[in-house]
Amino acid sequence: MTSLSRLGFSTTARSSPPRAIGMHPNHVVTTSGPNIPQSHSCGAFGLVSPASSQCRDGGHDGYPFSPASSKSGNLTEPRNYAPRTSGQPAVCSEPPPKFDPSGLVNGQLHQQQGMNGQQQVSTGPQYHQPVANGQQYQQQAAVPTQAQLTPGGHALVQVYPGPEAPVVNYSSSLAVVPATEIRANRSSELNNLTNTPSGLPLVANAMDPSNFPFVEAPRMAQAINRGVVKLKNIPFATKRSEVIAFLGRNSKILNDSEEPVHIIMERVTSKTMDAYVEFVSLEEAMKAVDKHHHNLKNGRVSRLGDRPIEVELSSQANLMRDLFPLARGLIWDGATPHFKPFNQNYAWENFRGFISEEEMVMLIKHVEVPHRSPYSKDCPQRPYECLISTLKKFPWYATDRISISQRHAMYIATERLLQVLSEKVNRGCDHINLTAQLQTRLTNAALACPGFTPLMKDNLAWLLNIPEAEQRFYGQPRYAYSWRHQYSLAPKPGAPLDWYISIIREQTHRDMLSRTHASRTELQEKGQQTDMYWGYFWAELGHNFGPQFDQMTLAQVAHAEFTAVERVLSRALPSH
């Protein structure tokens, strides 16, 4: 017995033998002879020697190891150099659980682990934050795609942190059944979609138009033919309010939010041309023209200011032709353009775009240096009203004829004009022409423009300090600043948007890990320079930026994005 004490083994029986640091609380110690331990299970750390556990040898307070074993490492498992599959959980030497049919012992253990897991995921910045109530286009709360149910009813949920460094647990599976608490916080649409044994819908159900949360925003615009009245020979300094007052309060023109008055301005010289007014129907437009002709027969000449003007019935085709004078090679059928075949003999008659980048540049110059433009100097609000009419009446639905560069030129002009107008309104430069009402009209036209991407609208909202709750009114998604590589996709209100994005993010991360080391390293370096809220969706698109990308049409970009989403979902979700 004395020799055993000198070697570090206790000769006195103990009810609970001491365990090394990191040892599993429910490990089993098998003894042979007088309490001599043969093996110690230490959870995922394997067999721990006294040296690695930083405990002294010998004595009743130390671990029952002999000095010889601590030096020679007889009780230490040799290092395993066998290759392991990437993404698989680490192999541990933890003993199997005890036979517990009632689930009392293991149930308490899992419940304790579930509480610890909840404490770990509750800290740190997260993508999915609550949104204020009462919003028209409130997106559904993000639902974690990986959860683990415990007998105690707790869910070990993996939540992604902020967009700087998304963390993904690739060892777990997407096929999970959400906990009751999670389903209670979900929308009814998402619960119906994920109401499957695996917790994941089929690809066909996920791509169904009733569930699919993405739309092609430019195609949401529609060509509407309304009654139009044209006012000719108007003064160049005519105001919008004067045109509305001239037609009278009984005239049924469109609501102010739809911008019924279009005062045509030549974008290069800023010269005021004619004015068009849209009515709710063709009959109402005819009544306004008949009233003017009746007054003219009775000897009362219609005047706008001190100048007699002409009032005639017009059409949407004439309005579109005067708004976009450089659009050649097409025929306007109402507000819908019909393009002529390409003519090699008369190249100047072929279609090149509804607007030119030079027009947008000159529009910016008129507001930046108005003293160099005689018309803008006397009528400073005209360039802003021209841009409002351009955004409202632009045929965004013709996506196969609008290029990325043309849309970018319109966005740059909109951003610059909003910035200049906001500064002048704050300084109070012109309380008569440059008013807060004009700024509100231009802001509404820009944020409601179907051709601008969510990122473009988010930039404008940040420039004007528009609160996030107000942005929901225009259909903006949460974290719109993270939609950096979506040039045509837009959110559909009422759909489980965040759930789809989380599926795309996790699947593209797994696809990245399956690449070769060189390709994976290159993608990771590029990923550090952009936002990773969508994961490696930009790598799935594979756009080559440059002049070739600038000449792509909105229809081509939309086809590439919807095809990429379908490919990612087909790899992430079961097919049957």
UniProtKB/TrEMBL annotation:
Extent of Polar residues compositional bias: 1-15, 67-88
GO terms assigned for molecular function: nucleic acid binding
Ranges of compositional bias, category Low complexity: 107-120, 129-144
Lineage per the UniProt record: Eukaryota, Fungi, Dikarya, Ascomycota, Pezizomycotina
Signal peptide location: none
Domain of life from the UniProt record: Eukaryota
Protein name as it appears in the record: RRM domain-containing protein
Source organism (scientific name): Tolypocladium paradoxum
Region (Disordered): 1-35, 51-144
